[in-house]
């Protein structure tokens, strides 16, 4: 049995960040699926691991931890094999990574999760779509992408804050942007189109963690394609409806 | 001139956390008011310090940083005088603090800030009150207080995760709970009443950082009392309206 157990679903953006981090750093981790589609995250046996009932969580030889950024910081600090660029030791460099990680919660994360939920996923979870909430979240996503594009990718270097190698902030934010895949290939491309530095940065994160970034996103791409097919068939049956997707 | 400059408004909960942290640790910090009521946080000269246009921010001898949790981590790491309990070095103890700090963004912080804005402050900033949003945020505040009460104060020790001395997480969360003062003394007491451990913990944080916790809250108490007086006079003029405040 692996010492480090991950409780994850690859459809969840912070779960993917943890999985890619472990694979890219050669950590001996066992991946345990907590199937969000089946509501396994709400079951008592999972809440014994994470009382918040969310993924991801980890069990490191009896030490339980949740909140993806706390997990990334912990793994980068506790496992000596992890290269320093993931979580710099220099207090100022680290502080800049922390700033981006904290900013993320109330900006890109809030926008992206809310947009995908209220425009695409909600019915699959038994809730109605909410176009007003989706529009507000879309505005927040665009403002967040603009901040990444103009503020954190404004220096030399392929990664956030001008680094030549990725940090845990690159991984967390990149896995959030890829969640827009749920909106469909065309809509995702349209949202990203005004932000060339963001698009280049996503390619750089994928390349730096190859082939793990791509493989960790396979489940998302497959499900997103099913949602897209459904929208297309509904759209051809009811040509006047859902014109924006 | 002090080496460390704080850009803050004591009406902002994360600003208070930074101010109390500096005072409690004897850091030589210069407090610069960024008056939220006058919109000074939106002015270009402040956005040169924090492009997000929010308080708090710090300038540590030319190193600019925003996001209050990033600032607290930075100050605790960069200033040798800060006692270790504020930000434990042990990777597991630290990870538990990080977990609470990350959880805070999307739970207590989101609920408290939204509740106070949508039930009390919005008109003062030119926006309408939003009773539906306020109710949703109140539910999130109560769920968050329950989590603190049952999950993070369930061990011996006066502070979060059973510690006998406060961490930066104690300070951040406590300064958020005190923001409920804006709802009025009675409503705040009513919201806190089911959570005895939270009430004891607030007392412990105040005591551990005395007299700085109390003095940092004076501006909040003064303004909250003005809001309360206004509500009372409006209520006596229009007895049927605003019955819940």
TrEMBL record, chains A, B:
Keywords of the record: Detoxification, Transferase
Occurrences of domain GST C-terminal (ranges): 90-226
Domain GST N-terminal: 2-83
Entry's Gene Ontology molecular function annotations: transferase activity
Transferase is among the record's keywords: yes
Domain of life: Eukaryota
Biological process terms in GO annotation: toxin catabolic process
InterPro entries membership: Glutathione-S-Trfase_C-like, Glutathione-S-Trfase_C_sf, Glutathione_S-Trfase, Glutathione_S-Trfase_N, GST_N_Theta, GSTT1/2/3, Thioredoxin-like_sf
UniProt similarity note: Belongs to the GST superfamily. Theta family.
Protein name as annotated: Glutathione S-transferase
């Amino acid at each position: 049995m692996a010492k480090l157990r991950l409780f994850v679903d690859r459809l969840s953006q912070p779960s993917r960040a943890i999985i890619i981090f472990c694979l890219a750093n050669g950590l001996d981790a066992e991946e345990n699926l907590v199937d969000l589609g089946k509501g396994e995250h709400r079951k008592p046996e999972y809440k014994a691991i994470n009382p918040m009932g969310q993924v991801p969580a980890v069990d490191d030889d009896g030490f339980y931890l949740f909140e993806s950024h706390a997990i990334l910081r912990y793994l980068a600090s506790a496992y000596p094999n992890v290269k320093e660029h993931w979580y710099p030791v220099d207090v100022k460099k680290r502080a800049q990574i922390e700033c981006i990680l904290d900013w993320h919660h109330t900006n890109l994360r809030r926008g992206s999760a809310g947009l995908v939920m209220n425009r695409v996923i909600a019915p699959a979870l038994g809730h109605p779509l909410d176009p007003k909430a989706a529009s507000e979240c879309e505005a927040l996503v665009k403002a967040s992408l603009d901040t990444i594009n103009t503020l954190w990718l404004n220096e030399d270097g392929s990664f956030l804050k001008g680094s030549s190698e990725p940090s845990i902030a690159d991984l967390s934010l990149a896995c959030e942007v890829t969640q827009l895949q749920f909106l469909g290939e065309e809509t995702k491309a349209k949202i990203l189109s005004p932000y060339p530095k963001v698009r280049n940065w996503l390619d750089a994160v994928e390349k730096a963690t190859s082939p793990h970034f791509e493989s960790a996103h396979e489940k998302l791409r497959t499900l997103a394609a099913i949602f897209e097919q459904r929208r297309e068939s509904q759209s051809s049956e009811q040509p006047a409806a859902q014109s924006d997707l």
